[in-house]
Description:
21% strand; Rossmann fold; alpha/beta; six-stranded mixed beta sheet; 20 strands
Amino acid sequence: MADPPLLALSGIRFHLGDQTVLDGVDLGIAPGERLSLVGRNGAGKSTLLRILAGQPIFDGGTRFAQPGATIATLPQEPDFAGHGTVADYVASVLPDSLGPSDYRIAAILEEMKLDGERQPGELSGGEARRAALARVLVGEPDVMLLDEPTNHLDLPTIEWLEEKLARWRGAYVLVSHDRRFLTTLSRAVLWLDRGIVRRLDRGYGEFEAWSTDIVEREATERHKLDRLIERETEWAGKSIRARRTRNEGRLRALNALRQQRRDQIGPVGRATIEAGSAEASGALVVTARNISKAWGDKVIVKDFSTRIFRKNRIGLIGPNGAGKTTLLKMLMGELEPDSGTVKLGANLMPVVIDQRRIGLDPDKTPWEVLADRNDHVLVRGHPTHVMTYLREYLFRDEQARQPVRTLSGGERNRLLLAKALAAPSNMIVLDEPTNDLDADTLDLLQEALADYDGTVLLVSHDRDFLDRLVTSTIALEGDGTAVEYAGGYSDYVSQRGPRVEPTGVTPSRAREKGAAPRSAGQAKRLGFKRERALVELPKKIAALQAEIATLQGALADPDLYRRDAKSFQSKTTRIGVAQSEIEAAETEWLELEMLREELSS
C-alpha cells in the first residue's frame, strides 16, 4: 500500500489579473520522493512552491499537510531581514535551537564553509546561496522545496550539493535550469504547462520525449476538433432554417464545440533568439602571452597564455572567487595584467551580458527598456516594432507596459538577452547567462550562440550548457593555475585527471590530450616556404578584401543590372569566389601560425 502524501494539493486555482496561472492543480508528495518541477519561465513554478509551502495565496482549492511534517523552503531570493549574523539566520528555522552555539548550526556552517559571525549583508551571491541552503538543510525536514538551488553556486559546490541530495532521506521538489542536476537527482517530473500539472513517474532524462509526445497528440486533437467545427458550421448555415426545432440540440452542441476550442490554449510558442552581427573581426581575436594578476597576496592567474580565434566559443569555469571575471576582463582589454601582454584583434565590437542584470531598471517597463519612448527598436540592423520583438521572446502584450519588477527571474533574463542581442556585435561575453532560463529558452540560446558569426566568451557553472556549446574550456583552480582544455566540461574532467596540469600550457598543447612538453633542444623552424607563406598570406587576404569592397561599390549602382546584366552577374560571382579564397587563406595562415607557435614552445 502506498504511503499517504506528506503534502497534497487539490483543485488549486490562482489568477494574476486576467491570466490563469494555476487551473485546478492536483498533486501529492509522498515520503522520500525526488521530484523535479519544470515549466516555462512565468508558468507559475515559484507560485506553486509558495502554495506548497503554506502561503494562502490561491483563489480556490485545498492544501493538505500531514500533522507534524516539517517543510523547508529555499526561495530564489533569500530574506535576511532581522538577522544580525549568518548563524542567527540559519538558527532561526529551528524551533528548539539554542542559538548560534547550537552544535547543529556549527556543523552545517562548517560543511558549507561559512563564517557564522559575518553579517548577511556582507555576503557575495554564492555565499548568500550557501547560507540559505544551510538554513534549509540544518533541520533535516521531511520535505524540501528548492527553487533554483544551484543559482550563484560554483561547480564544486553544485557537485557537493548533488551528493548531499543523493543521500537525502526526506522528500524534495526541485525547480532548476540545470538539466544535469535534474537528471542526476529526480525520479519523477511535475510538468506545469498552461495552468495544469502533469506527472511523469520517470526521471528527468525521459521528460523531453514524453512532453513532445503530449504536445503532438494535443495538436492532432485540435486539428480534428477544428475540422469538426468546420463541418458543423457548414451544416448550420444550410439547415437551421429548415429544421429549426429539430436541430436546436445540434446547434447547441456546435456552440459547445466552439467554446471548447476557445477554452483550449495551444502550447506556448518558442522564443526566437538571434544575435545581431556586425562587421567581422580579425581572424585572431585575442592573444594573451604569459599574463599574471594578483590582488594583494592572492594570485589570481599566473603565466597564462592563449589565442582566441574568430568563431571560437570559450568557457571559463572555476570556484567562486577563483578569478574568472578578472581573467575575462583581462582578455577583453578592460584590465591590465601585472605582467605579460594581451593583444586584441581588429574591429572588435563586443556586447556584454552580465549576471547582475545591469541595465534593467525595475521601475521601467520592458517597452521602455528596449525602445525608451519610441515604438521601434533597431534589431540586427532593421527597425522592428517593440511588441513584435517582445513577442519573439515570449512576452505577452500586457507585460510590455508592466514594471520590470513584476517579471519572474527568467523573464528578466530573457529581457536582458533581448536588449543585448539586438545590438550589432562580433563578440559576445556572457556571465552566467543560463540562470533562471527554462529548458526551451536555453536550447534556443545555445543554438543562437552556436550559429553566431562572432566569438563567444562564457562564464558558466551549467555543465550541460558548456558541453553543448564551447570549443574549449579555461579552468581556474583557485590557486593561480589556469589551464585550457579542448571541449566542454565533461572533456575537462576527463583530461584533467587526478591533478591539474602545470601552468602556462598553450592552447595547442591543451588540445592534444596527453601531449608531452617539448624541450628547448627540440625546437624546430617551419621551413622557408611556410615562413614565406606566413608573410604573404595576410597581404593576399588584404588584397582580396579590397577587391570585394570595389566590387560591392560597383554593385551598389541601382542601374547596373539594367545597363549590363552580364557584368552584374560576373561581379556577383567573383565576390563569392573571393570570399571563399579569403576563408581558405585565413585557415592556412591560422594553421601555420599555430604550428609555428608549437614548434617554438
